[in-house]
Structures are given as C-alpha cells and as structure tokens.
Specification:
With about 325 residues, the protein is of the alpha/beta class. It is about 50% helix and about 20% strand. It comes from Amycolatopsis speibonae. Belongs to the bacterial solute-binding protein 2 family.
C-alpha cells in the first residue's frame, strides 16, 4: 500500500470516529420574524360574576362566597354583581363586556332577555360560563359550559320524595315570575309525584305577602298535604303559614340556609334539595382560569352538575356545619 493511500485512509477513519462520537444535531431556533411564538398569558385574570339574585338572598351569598374564595386561591380578580330584573342584569353584562373582563359567569333565569348581551360577550372574545339556570340555552349562546343542577331532575327527586312519604296533593310555590328554572322544578315535581300538583305564584321580595298567599292556599284546600318551596327563605314562610292555620301539610324545599337546617332538625321541614351552590360560584372561576392558562374546557359539551343532593334528618348534622360557615 502506497504512502499516499495510507494517509487518505487515516483521514477517513478519523472523520468516521468524530461522527460516531457526536450526538444528533440540535434543532435550530426559528429565525427572527419567522412567525409568532405563542406565550402563556400573564397577570391576574379578571372575572365578572353576574347573577339574577336579589339583595340579601342567602342562596346567592353562598354563590358569591364560592366565587370569591376561588379568586383568592387562584389569584383571580372576581367582581360579583346581581340584579333580579332581567333588563338590568343584561346591562351589567354589557358593562362587563365594555370593561373587557377576562371571563364572564352568568346565571340565566330569563335566557331570552340575556341572549344578545351574552352573544356580544362571546363575539368580543370573552369566555362565558353559565350557572344555575338556563342550561338548555347555554351552548347555543356560545358559553363554554354550564354549571348547576338539572332543574327537571331535581324537581322529580323532590316529587318522588313526597310520594314515598305517602302524600296525595302537592302545592309547588314559585317565587320568581318568568324564571325558567323554577317552572322546570315544578314540572319535574309533577312527574316525580305522579299525583295532584298545583302551583302558587308569590313574590320573594315581599315575604309577608308570600306567607299570606301560602296560608290562604292551605287554609282554603285542607286536602293539600305537601308544600314544595323553591327557595330556603320562602320555606320559612311556608312553615309559619302552615302553623298559623293548623294545617297538617309538610314542607319540602329547595336550597339550604340556617333556618332550614334548624327546621329539618325540628321536623318542620322534611327535606331540602341542595344544589350545592357554592360550587356554582367556585367552579366557573376555576374553569375560566384553566381555559385562560391551558385552553382547557371542562364538561365535554355537557353541563357540569352540582346536584341534586337531598338533605334530611339523616344528613343535616353533617351538612349543617357548612351551612353555618356559608359554604353550603
């Protein structure tokens, strides 16, 4: 072998050895201006929670507590506002959109009145989660998901419970005119009860008149042996009304407060349908944070159910301690 050939082979071998000792070539970074690089949004998220609750309503105070606690835990700025008038609630939504909030949580007791405002929020790029009422309209309006109990199913459970107790004639007390969720509760109760069900309209903002109307109903028809109220504060009025006329009717209710807990313990209310409204405040804030930071959508196109959970004498001691602290 010639000297020149040996020298060439040595060079080739050296190159092969160098190639074997080096790892794969690192990926090159894109050149400046090659395209946008996605980054995670920074800074605290601002969420507007806008409900149809009326002033002083214990139910909505628990929803507010849940939303604000989620905000504290997740470093989210939560702003809670409410108005029982659908037109005024729509204006609150419009104001939140004008202020360019990062997320919107809305209860839809009167979906049609809020439709334009919610759709405007979605068009503005603001993610919306609906809560409590309006489940069947939520996806159509563009909301990410709905958080609450299915009102028809909850009503069926209440009606079924009264049927199991041997009741024959049920009065379902509606306290907010035009609230689709309350109509669904009474309709569900009719299905679950499978007996004679009547409805009575009262006004939650006039509790004295509400009590008077319930008293008149049970006094006029002594065959009424069950009264279903759709709100914990109305339940207390129903108990007073029944006592005043010496009726044998028993009261079941939707939602909890300290008065209802005491009434269940005393046997004056036989059960409460708890939709765990703390979750209706807490979970949407968490979901919007996940959506903003990680593009997560919870529910898979279906509502996230928070109830119903029936509370009676067997469970009231456990649940009651959380009602006392404002989280049930």
């Amino acid at each position: 072998m010639s000297h020149r050939l040996r020298k060439a082979l040595v060079v080739v071998a050296g190159l092969l050895l160098l190639s074997a000792c080096t790892g794969p070539k690192a990926e090159e970074k894109p050149a400046a201006g090659a395209g946008p690089v996605k980054t995670q949004p920074s800074g605290p998220l601002r969420v507007a929670v806008i409900s149809h609750g009326t002033a002083g309503d214990a139910f909505w105070n628990v929803v507010k507590n849940g939303a604000e606690e989620a905000g504290r835990q997740l470093d989210v700025q939560v702003e809670y506002n409410s108005d029982g008038d659908p037109g005024n609630q729509a204006k609150l939504i419009d104001n939140a959109v004008a202020q360019q909030v990062g997320g919107l949580v809305v209860s839809m007791a009167n979906p049609e009145a809020l439709k334009t405002s919610i759709e405007n929020a979605v068009r503005a790029g603001i993610p919306v989660i609906t809560i409590n009422s309006g489940e069947d309209k939520s996806a159509g309006y563009g909301a990410l998901t709905h958080v609450g109990q299915n009102e028809t199913i909850a009503g069926e459970e209440a009606g079924k419970k009264f049927r199991e107790l041997g009741k024959k004639k049920l009065l379902c007390v509606v306290h907010e005119a035009g609230n689709v969720g309350q109509a669904q509760r009474c309709d569900g109760a009719k299905t679950g009860f499978a007996g004679d069900v009547q409805t009575l309209q009262v006004d939650i903002s006039n509790p004295t008149d509400a009590e008077s109307r319930i008293r008149g109903a049970v006094q006029t028809d002594s065959s009424l042996d069950a009264v279903l109220t759709l709100n914990s504060q109305v339940a207390a009025r129903a108990v007073s009304a029944i006592k005043a006329v010496g009726s044998a009717a028993q009261v079941g209710t939707f939602d909890l407060n300290t008065d209802v807990v005491g009434a269940i313990k005393a046997g004056e209310v036989v059960f409460a349908v708890d939709q765990q409204q703390y979750e209706q405040g807490y979970l949407p804030v968490q979901f919007l944070k996940l959506y903003r930071d990680n593009a997560n959508v919870v529910g898979g196109g279906k509502p996230v159910l928070t109830g119903p959970d029936l509370v009676d004498k067997s469970t009231v001691d456990t649940v009651g301690q959380y009602v006392q602290r404002g989280t049930r």
